[in-house]
Write a structure and sequence with these properties.
Length: 207
């Protein structure tokens, strides 16, 4: 047994297989990370907002966890495989390869499954981080400048105010247009707090 493991260790540490094994480990990490993130999120959201039998809740959590893990693992597989193929073709890797691989993986895994709530959450999460990253990059490249920190803080205050004003207005006028998990959270915060049947449902329980 030990000799077999030693042989396998020798193979996986062989530089000739490094690029291919990067894909394997990437898929593994994508599945593990996606599963961990979604399991915690789905479990909390199910406990807080879902009603019904425990078996149905468990099925929902497992289904959501599986979908997130599979989607992230599949994306990593496409991304890293594309990078590997481009590197083999061009003889070296380049920055533009990451853009092309990301575009392909994003379209195949997330672009064609827009109806999935989980896909929407993942893409919107990435979108918000990209926007924040681009704003920091603009500052780094001096494309955007502020006179001082107070000026920058004022811009952030306006941005935060507009975001919250718009989401509350949409929640009032067109709540069906909001992402389902966001709407559920807002229902809990702003609608369920409008009614109670006694001290028990005022302080200790929501309903």
């Amino acid at each position: 047994m030990n000799s077999t493991l030693q042989k396998l260790d020798k193979i996986v540490l062989d530089p000739r297989y490094h690029d291919v094994l990067e894909i394997v480990k990437g898929v593994r990490n994508g599945a593990v990370y996606g599963g961990k993130v979604r399991l915690c999120h789905a479990l909390v959201m199910t406990i807080l907002f879902r009603h019904g039998r425990i078996q149905d809740k468990a099925k929902f959590v497992l289904k959501a966890t599986k979908e997130h893990a599979m989607n992230l693992a599949s994306y990593v597989a496409i991304y890293k495989t594309t990078l590997y193929m481009l590197k083999k073709r061009n003889g070296k890797s380049s920055d533009i390869d990451t853009l092309l691989a990301g575009l392909l993986g994003g379209y195949v895994i997330f672009g064609r499954g827009g109806g999935s709530a989980i896909n929407q959450q993942i893409v919107l999460y990435v979108f918000s981080r990209v926007v924040l990253g681009l704003s920091k990059l603009s500052l780094k490249k001096s494309l955007i400048t502020f006179k001082d920190k107070a000026h920058a803080d004022k811009v952030w205050s306006i941005f935060a105010s507009v975001c919250w004003g718009l989401v509350m207005y949409m929640f009032r006028t067109d709540p069906d247009c909001l992402q389902p998990s966001l709407k559920s959270s807002m229902d809990y915060l702003y609608m369920d707090s409008n009614s109670w049947s006694g001290l028990r449902t005022l302080l200790w329980h929501n309903k």
